[in-house]
Amino acid sequence: MAKIVAEMTAEELREVVGSAVEKKIVELLGDPDTGLEIRENVRKRLLRQKRAVAKGERGEPLEKVVRRLKLA
């Protein structure tokens, strides 16, 4: 449904402007990852994560990652 700017809420206008800006940036800069290959181990990890998200599973809590990696 087409609206004139005066009829849009602030949030609708933000979405329209944000979308236009993103589109223009991609148009000007392109995708920096185009043509790059994904390593097999990364591809497998991404597929595992995708399946987990599809099943409604959540990621590991940040606090647990920090402890596991001894970052704190």
Rounded average pLDDT: 89
Topology as H/E string?
A: HHH
Using the CA coordinates, give the radius of gyration: 20 Å
**How much beta, percentage-wise?**
under 5%
Number of strands: 0
Largest sheet: none
Uncertain segments are none
Task: Give the count of helical stretches.
Answer: 3
Give the CA-CA distance, first to last residue: 51 Å
- What global shape is seen? extended
Percent range for helical residues? 55-70%
Q: SS-based structural class? A: mainly alpha
Query: How many domains, as an integer?
Result: 2
Structural summary, described in words:
- By secondary structure, the chain is mostly helical.
- The chain folds into 2 domains: 1-34; 37-72, no CATH class.
- It has helices at 10-29, 40-54, 62-68.
- The longest helix has 20 residues, at 10-29.
